[in-house]
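Researcher: Please translate sequence to structure tokens.
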Amino acid sequence: MATIAEVARHAGVSSSTVSYVLSGKRSISEKTRSRVERSIRELGYHPNAGARALASNRSRIIALMVPLRTDMYLPVMMEIAIAVATTARQHGQDVLLLTGEEGPTAVRRVVGSGLADAMIVMDVELEDERVPLLRTAERPAVLIGQPADPVGLTCVDLDFAATGALCVDHLADLGHRDVAMIGEATGVYRRHTGFAERTLVGLRARARERGVRVIHRPCEGTYESTAGVLARIFEERPGTTGLVVQNESAVDPLLNLLRQQGRAVPEDVSVVAICPEQVALQASVQLTSVALPAHEMGRRAVELVIAKVEGGEPEALTLLRPQLTVRASTGPAPA
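Model: Translation complete:
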């Protein structure tokens, strides 16, 4: 592995000049900086993390807290995590991944150890136990999600309340008056996870405004649980013609069950999904959907947290506007 002295000889400068280029502590001419950076790339030089931290008083590490729960759709969580990691690398940062369900303990460990300059926190609950510590922590933090009270915090999220409303509007515009929502697993609502709760709030509020009857049923996402939820919906509301699905694992079982029951999509039942684009496109019927902007949320979170590390005061709440794409799974309500 190349050393800083070898980089200096290759670039024809002193070792201190290379150090100044790396640390940014002194102004270096653009010509010299370019020559040093070219030598760094050609030699494959990587600064020692410990020495770099001592020199700058920064570790250039971001801690990403992403509890891997069995009742969450992990591909979305991992897509956000990958977006965080790739964006961080573009800014010369590394990512420390914390996947345990530790709550405040993980926050205390990051702050106390000094291993990371900042934190990005996922799987945010409305009354999240980590929030009081994050408000007072010495390390900057950004939440991907919203607690009930976001005051004093920096958050980025899809506007899930607007997402729920958008789904209702689409179905109401097509003439549907009885709509059911097949939601996340029971544990997600038991924890009052922010994205799921906010979707429900937006969906129910818009349904009242539009004169749409709506019911919500959690679903574990297995074939058996989806079958039970669907049977219950049509038993309670036989006239249901619109379904909103916020559970990626339930999409394929749902479409299979509707087909087995002789219910054509969208002639008999229209389906709108809140899911990744790939899930909507690969379903047996391409789904009208609101996509989850996982990459955009991860990218924005990194940019916000780096701005905070550098002393900036970014906007407290960044809500991404939902976009509904109409595909083959929705149509006019049956006469």
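Researcher: Any highlights?
Model: The mean pLDDT is 91.
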